[in-house]
Specification:
The chain has 359 residues and is an alpha/beta fold. The protein is 37% helix and 18% strand.
Length: 359
């Protein structure tokens, strides 16, 4: 069944590693955005009942109570089974939890990124490990135990020892889901742009090199698997029964609709989205709609799942050359009728996926 994504692109501070269309905004911009977002949701014609709902950002946990209530009232809720809210540590309070529960929130994603204070301060984050521990306890004691913790490999000053320190918090916190991302150097984040320019700000000279970043990721991945987490998607690990139902829609090519700044939608065939600037969004500008190639998408998106995909006979034939190339390189393997990445391929997956476009 389909899902809904809602973008709340506002934060109390802009993290140096963030490459999303989000940040700190003036109160009048926030108020104007709230009006525009509600108008977009109310104008939508629903041809189906959503099964999942995901509030991303930004920091959706900063949403005012009345605004969150208005959004929930405007959405079809009869078939919702999973409702996720992204939270920044430091924004979880007993009052907020009571509101989230009343609104039907049943899954929380905490943007922890690291449990090491010096790494957090380099990025602009203000929380520490004790704050995360306290807020996880608040959530669990209130009955909100379906919790995800985000971690990043490749932050400034990060070492193998400090990654061990972060990982040492995972088991006692017992969050049933962990997302592990690799910091990507690109011009859309302040830190990434500073590295590209050869600058000194935001701890740019202290970012681990590619080899160390790969080691950090592998160390974390191995530790999570040893703790009983199933590595079900390139960046995601879950205890049994706790894989993100909403995010699985993206990789299984199920339909979803996005509302808000830079939100994207997929109807099973066509991809379309909203502008990634406030000016464009307020003026209802729409980037060009694209029609996907089902077979290309099957490989480009589906291979992110560690269980892989089951290509059709025509897909085996169409993509025979890139499949054979990456099999020879030890990056793809066949398991029965399925094709999947091998463990080393995870770190070069984007390069592999590109081979299945325009074939």
């Amino acid at each position: 069944m389909p899902g809904v994504y809602i973008s709340y692109p506002f934060c109390s501070q802009k993290c140096s590693f963030c490459n999303f269309a989000s940040g700190v905004s003036a109160p009048d911009t926030i108020a104007k955005y709230q009006r525009a977002l509600m108008a977009e949701i109310r104008a939508h014609i629903w041809h189906w009942q959503p099964e999942t709902l995901y509030f991303g950002g930004g920091t959706p946990s900063l949403m005012p109570a009345d605004f969150l209530q208005d959004i929930m009232a405007a959405l079809p809720r009869e078939k919702l089974t999973e409702v996720t809210l992204e939270c920044a540590p430091g924004t979880v309070t007993p009052q907020a939890i009571a509101l989230w529960l009343a609104c039907g929130i049943n899954r929380i994603s905490l943007g922890v990124q690291s449990f090491v204070t010096r790494e957090l301060r380099q990025t602009g984050r203000k929380h520490d490990a004790e704050i995360v521990q306290r807020e996880v306890e608040l959530l669990r004691n209130a009955g909100l135990s379906n919790i995800n913790i985000d971690l990043i490999a490749g932050l400034p000053e990060q070492t193998l020892a400090s990654m061990d320190e972060s990982l040492s918090w995972i088991k006692p916190l017992a969050a049933p889901h962990v997302s592990l991302y690799i910091f990507e150097i690109d011009e859309d984040s302040r830190l990434g742009n500073e590295i590209i320019l050869g600058g000194q700000r935001y701890g740019a000279p202290l970012v681990p090199n590619d080899e160390l970043t790969a080691q950090l990721y592998e160390k974390a991945s191995q530790a999570l698997r040893a703790m009983g987490y199933h590595h079900y998607e390139i960046s995601n690990y879950a205890q049994p029964g706790f894989a993100s139902r909403h995010n699985l829609k993206y990789w299984l090519l199920e339909p979803y609709v996005g509302f808000g700044l830079d939100a994207h939608s997929f109807d099973g065939r066509n991809r379309f989205g909203n502008a990634d600037t406030f000016e464009g969004y307020f003026n209802a500008e729409k980037p060009p709609q694209t029609t996907s190639d089902p077979s290309e998408e099957h490989f480009f998106v589906g291979l992110r799942l560690l269980d892989g995909i089951e290509p059709s006979p025509s897909e085996w034939q169409r993509f025979a050359e890139p499949i054979a190339k990456w099999e020879r390189a030890g990056m793809l393997e066949r398991v029965g009728l399925r094709l999947r990445l091998t463990p080393p391929a995870v770190l070069v997956s984007n390069e592999i996926f590109q081979e299945f476009l325009n074939v």
